[in-house]
Amino acid sequence: MAGGLPPLAIAPSRRPQLDHVADDALEATSSAEVARAWENFAAGEDVEAGVRPEILASWYRCRDRYEVDRSLDVAPGARCEDVQRLDNGVIFTTLGGLGALAGREVERDGAVVTVTDGDGRVLGSWGDPAAQRRAELHNLAPWSSWSEECTGTNGMGTSLEVAGPVTVTGPEHWCEAFHRWACAGISIRDVVTSAPVASINISRWNAPLSPLTPEWLSKAARCVEKEIYRRAMFETDKVWSEFNKKAGEVGVPVMAMDRGGNAVAANESAASLLGLTNDSLVVAGAIEPAQRWTPDIPGLSDVVRWAKERAREPAQWSGYACLPLGNGDEETPVTFRPVVDSDRLVGMLCYFGVQEGEPYEGASEPSAGSVPQRIIGIRNDRLVLLAPTEIRYAEADRNIVWLVTERGRIQASTRGLDNVERSLAPHGFRRVHRRFLVNLRRVAELERGIKGELFLITDSRSHEFVPVSRRHAPELRRMLGV
């Protein structure tokens, strides 16, 4: 699998002598402006320039959300509950082989290659023995936790928070003890859920990394994600087969979903209930992950997360929730039954109008104290700090979320509309469409379309139209008192 990867040269320079290096060797290649910004930011000040946006966004997470101690000099051990489930065993076998291959390549450059699971727990380490000994002083070794939440800004942990390769050099690290390391990491993501399942990272002590390292990491990630794609297609076959078998046995609307809550297939009655046309890919069967449809049903994502957690325990578990499917106030019971392959959840079948199994009791609201008072956005080379009141609405373009504000259109530093919604919901934002969140306090006008569609206008001067899906319209009218 790794045969298609180019040779990995970490740096064209000679290998550093780890025990006899000048104290300022790496700092000379790092920006003094970044070091000053780190000092000021760690002291509680806000910084908006002079630091790369992805690094500054990470610092805010470390300081304000995770409250990581910047004096930490050793990564903590992984908690017992962090033990990785076996359903990713094939992926980690593939990734481990790639890490071992890369380790041999970088040994002459005094570097270390590490791989982690999706929680940032180190699973393996390869490379120069002297560099590995140096890394072990900071517990950069198997069974340690290098997520941002545990260890601050670093190549592994920060790559799990964002898409694409991440480099962290010198004082860009949140913890001062790691300021003499240069590292680059990339997350491996599930093609079904877009969630990180692993990462691969290259670290070098007191010496820079080659600018070609991120490109190599991107190619390595694509190699591993091919294996994830093959597994996803195997899972789709299982879900599709179960749907074809069960949908014909019952006389109710049935929809099949993958592990991420995306619709794979629906029978005719389910398609009609959900407002799908006959030419929808879901009716024919959305085999490719990118072609699947996310149902626009209020509260469905929370119910799916609950059902996935509950389905891990009993062998024949089923549960139901009452969800608003139409224009009226009445809710319809939906029963969820897991599709399992070798004790591993690969999808779910949803039976509309059926009430069976464990009832869903609702998700608890996030506490106000845990919600950040500032929303972080990225524009050009700057980090933008936004008060929730500045945001009129948020629009999703796949996993990228755009915030429409008084200061223009700004990309949210957090990926995924569900994640942005959790931050904004306590500030008066509500989902009105599968792609839109709107600040109800900023709604100035409502307008009906030719076919009865409902649109929200948040700025009467520019006539911004935010579409409201028919399933969200009744709840929205109640909230607005119209």
TrEMBL record:
SMART domains: LytTR. GO terms for molecular function: DNA binding; phosphorelay response regulator activity. It comes from Prauserella isguenensis. Residues 375-482 form the HTH LytTR-type domain. It comes from the Bacteria. This is HTH LytTR-type domain-containing protein. The lineage of its organism: Bacteria, Bacillati, Actinomycetota, Actinomycetes, Pseudonocardiales. InterPro entries: GAF-like_dom_sf, LytR-like, LytTR_DNA-bd_dom. Gene3D superfamilies: 3.30.450.40, LytTr DNA-binding domain (2.40.50.1020).
